[in-house]
Design goal:
Length: 373
């Protein structure tokens, strides 16, 4: 699966009394879906997943999936402290139609998180998961930093597709990219090299079959069966699956697709280092700062992809300080307040997270001036 591009790890909206505000979650997801982001991460660290009950996590997964555009890659944050519970939540996300599972490193029993433990944990989850696994390393929150050597070893598992590296260490990003270059994998993509997932293929097939049935029904009623048999009803034969073309493009339902080599994919979580991370070989990013500013983050990646290094650096500098302070220093309350400024619903966080002070809000107001949402 292709994981290139920008993915906001969306927040979980709450009412002032702390209950989940599902209507605002729908609204936020619908608005993100109208931006050029590659996909959405539900129940990552920015989503306050650790603050939710098991039922709330499941309900948030369901509501977000129902509100998302069908062409967005949907990633579920399913990492819990045990492999058993991680697999249970991953299975639920798979049944809803999510495309991948992001699994954070277990960390509560830190002294037991030795290489053998981590290898066994991720291999067990990957072996039994119906979804491709994205390793999630966030040492600032977990207090555990997965070494590059373990990442390189896990990268060989066929169901471990990527890592989200949020440590902010560019040397480590380079080590992981270099240490996994030997992995060779193919991914199905659109003819314009956008992501295609099994969910998207299934949906395209259902739509194609529905259209074909409708066309055949209409043709029968109007006495046009002969034209269909001759192949003159173009819509019917264009939608036949797996139709080859001379440009290596094939058809899956109504989707025109091709293959692309993706290997093991390194993604990053530090918006203030997005451009240099891409330069080191990262393919995409899951950025807390993309929750209030998806367009600003997308424009950095788009300029880099277009080969305009100067523009990518310029756009990186515009958001660098804001990303550092809003996400790195103020955390989820800062992200949510910045979302409120940019037209999304941020709202309150759950205790023990406190709202920003007046001085902090004024600082965020200044930092977010001119940053696109």
């Amino acid at each position: 699966m292709l994981l290139s591009g920008i993915f906001p790890p969306i927040t979980t909206p709450f009412y002032p009394d702390g209950e989940v505000y599902y209507k605002k979650l729908e609204s936020n997801v619908e608005r993100y879906s109208r931006t050029p982001i590659a996909g959405i991460v539900v129940q990552g660290s920015t989503g306050e997943a650790i603050m939710l009950s098991d039922q709330e996590r499941r309900d948030v997964f369901k509501v977000a999936m129902g509100a998302a555009a069908p062409n967005k890659v949907m990633i579920a944050g399913t990492g819990l402290e045990s492999a058993h519970e991680t697999l249970r939540l991953t299975e639920y996300a798979a049944n809803l139609g999510y495309d991948a599972a992001m699994v954070r490193t277990p960390h509560y029993y830190k002294t037991q998180m030795l290489p053998a433990n981590l290898l066994a944990f991720y291999r067990t989850v990957a072996d039994r998961s119906a979804l491709p696994i994205i390793i999630y390393n966030f040492p600032q929150a977990t207090g555990y930093d997965m070494p590059p050597a373990i990442v390189s070893e896990l990268a060989g598992h066929p169901n471990i597709a990527a890592i989200k590296e949020s440590g902010g260490n560019l040397d480590k990003v380079k080590q992981m990219v270099d240490g996994t270059r030997h992995i060779r994998r193919q991914a199905t993509v659109t003819e314009t090299f956008e992501a295609v997932t099994p969910r998207m293929v299934k949906a395209a097939g259902i739509e194609s079959e529905k259209r074909s049935r409708e066309l055949v029904s209409v043709a029968t009623l109007t006495g046009s069966i002969e034209s269909i048999e001759r192949g003159t009803a173009a819509t019917v034969h264009v939608d036949h699956p797996a139709k080859p073309s001379s440009s290596a493009v094939t058809y899956l339902g109504k989707l025109k697709v091709r293959q692309k080599e993706v290997g093991f994919q390194v993604m990053v979580g530090a918006a203030h280092q997005l451009e240099p991370s891409l330069g080191l070989g990262a393919v995409g990013a899951i950025l807390g700062f993309a929750s209030p500013a998806p367009m600003a983050c997308y424009e950095i990646a788009a300029a880099f992809k277009d080969g305009d290094a100067a523009l990518a650096r310029e756009k990186q500098e515009r958001v660098k300080l804001a990303a550092l302070r809003v996400v790195g220093e103020l955390g989820v309350p800062g992200v949510k307040y910045a979302m409120d400024l940019n037209g999304y619903y941020g709202g309150p966080s759950r205790l023990p997270l406190l709202p920003l002070s007046g001085e902090q809000k004024a600082n965020v107001d200044k930092l977010m001036t001119g940053i696109k949402s």
